[in-house]
Design brief:
Elements lengths: L2 H6 L5 E4 L5 H10 L4 E4 L3 H8 L10 H9 L3 E4 L10 E4 L14 H13 L5 E4 L7 H10 L11 E4 L18 E5 L2 H11 L6 E4 L2 H32 L4 H8 L23 H10 L6 H27 L8 E5 L14 H9 L5 E5 L5 E4 L2 E4 L5 H6 L2 E4 L8 H7 L3 E3 L12 E3 L13
The structure holds nicotinamide-adenine-dinucleotide.
Length: 444
């Protein structure tokens, strides 16, 4: 039976390499669609959790994992040999940057080499990790072809960018359209056929590099727009008496040609902060300097330092010496309603203040503990007493479940970097992007 028929008859077997934020939800979705699926990961804790039918990702309920595991539709292993028995192999490994912000595609290379060992004719290999254009064709394809099988002839190879938005309850795997680009037309068609079994809208493009670039465009679009609004927030602070949040609310009433983005303490996670660097790095290979990308990164990455300056100012204005201050940080995750702390600006701010203040505590219902430098911190309960004890409460991640009424009532002083507490003019409340003081123009 050829692979197209196997896909239609739900006989195709699927392996997903990397069962993290992207891979685990995909495992569950594909298993639910009726394909026997195996998650492969080098992390044995994750593998064991799946085997026991347990989830470790907030958006994926344990009951969903348990249901497909109990039905025998989902298995997990650390052993790549299962690839021999699989028809479709999807790679979802990390693509971080190095400390100097160059792309680190070592995980793609490593998993590619492992897949190559067991590659056989007729298989479909799909890369989902976000990466710079030409990774699929110039990096992964030669690795897969090392045993003489040819992509587009003996096996199929495609790039299918991932659009998952952790914490987003509105768009699911089924309702989020996806882009598909194969190294040949038949690779694209086969990949399209597979995904259209469990995704409502699949959009084919002419090559993997177009698909790779489209993913980067989506994330750079966000990064640039967030940077723009962060810059305007700084401008409003400088001018005084113009509240950026009110400005955005007003502009958002325009029903066309405007999309609101919001300022904050910085961007984090595995995507918006990291991906733009992948493209600016690649562009340099062509003597091309992507000023927009670099400028957006510079602005967004300055935001934790802006929060730092504002906090020092707030403490100073209220007569609290920094070295004696007790801070309570609300939210450690990089964005609301998730537990992902990768590149979190909240942690950056905490790190800056770690040895400068008397005490720093944090509360995050999604992050039980964290490590900053060599210090281990545990999330403290969000109680009236904890709020009253703090000289200043910093809202760095605006989780929906926070009781903002209580936070406002019980805190002595609040620096709200997310505009979570909407009480303009309250004397104990300071908001990023708004200064109550009218500043004097510096020139003219
Ligand atoms: N997290 C998101 O919201 C999101 C959204 C869109 C795209 N992406 C992209 O998806 C990719 C994966 O991101 P993620 O957030 O799921 O990362 P993650 O760290 O949560 O998961 C990746 C998994 O891959 C495993 N892994 C690493 N090397 C491996 C190997 N050689 N073999 C098998 N397993 C291996 C890790 O142990 C980990 O469990 C990245 O390229 C990311 O940019 C992520």
């Amino acid at each position: 039976m050829d692979l197209a028929n196997k896909i239609l008859k739900r006989k195709a077997r699927v392996a997903i390499i990397g069962i993290g934020y992207v891979g685990l939800p995909l495992c569950v979705e594909i298993a639910r669609a009726g394909y026997r699926t195996t998650g492969i990961d080098i992390n044995s804790k994750k593998v064991n959790a799946v085997r026991r039918g347990r989830s470790f990702i907030d958006d994926v309920p344990t009951r969903d994992v348990a249901a497909v595991v109990d039905d025998g539709m989902l298995e997990a292993t650390t052993d790549y040999r299962v690839c021999r028995n699989c028809d479709i192999i999807i790679i979802c490994v990390p693509t971080p940057f190095t400390p100097t912000k160059d792309p680190d595609i070592s995980y793609i290379k490593e998993s590619g080499r492992s897949v190559a060992r067991y590659l056989k004719p007729g298989q479909l290999i799909i890369l989902r990790s976000t990466t710079y254009p030409e990774t699929t064709e110039k990096i992964l394809q030669p690795i897969l072809e090392q045993n003489k099988l040819k992509a587009g002839k003996d096996f199929c190879l495609s790039f299918v960018p991932e659009r998952i938005d952790p914490g987003n309850k509105k768009f699911t795997t089924r309702t989020t359209p996806i882009v598909v680009g194969g190294v040949t037309k038949s690779c694209t068609r086969l990949t399209e056929l597979f995904f259209s079994q469990f995704v409502d809208k699949v959009f084919p493009v002419s090559s993997p590099r177009v698909a790779e670039m489209s993913k980067l465009l989506e994330n750079i679009f966000r990064s640039v727009n967030i940077a723009l609004v962060n810059e305007l927030a700084k401008m409003c602070e400088r001018m005084g008496n113009i509240d950026i949040w009110e400005v955005i609310e007003a502009a958002s009433t325009k029903p066309f040609g405007f999309m609101p983005f919001y300022p904050g303490p910085g961007i984090g996670g595995h995507c918006i902060l990291v991906d733009p660097y992948y493209l600016s790095w690649k562009a340099r290979e062509y003597d091309f300097h992507s000023n927009f990308i670099e400028l957006a990164a510079e602005t967004n990455e300055s935001m934790p330092y802006l929060v730092t300056d504002r906090l020092l100012e707030v403490l100073g204005t209220n007569g609290i010496p920094c070295s004696r201050a007790r801070l309570l940080v609300l939210g450690a995750a990089f964005k609301k309603d998730v537990g992902d702390i990768r590149n979190s600006p909240a942690i950056k701010v905490m790190k800056i203040f770690m040895n400068k203040v008397r005490r720093i505590d944090y509360h995050d219902p999604y992050v039980a503990e964290l490590e900053i430098g060599n210090k281990k911190l545990k999330s403290v309960p969000l109680t009236r007493a904890a709020l009253r004890r703090a000289d200043c409460v910093l809202i760095l991640t605006d989780h929906t479940c926070f009781d903002y009424r209580m936070i406002f009532k019980e805190s002595t002083l609040i620096l709200d970097a997310r505009h979570a507490i909407r009480r303009r003019g309250a004397s104990k409340l300071y908001t990023l992007g708004y200064q109550r003081v009218k500043r004097l123009p510096t020139a003219g």
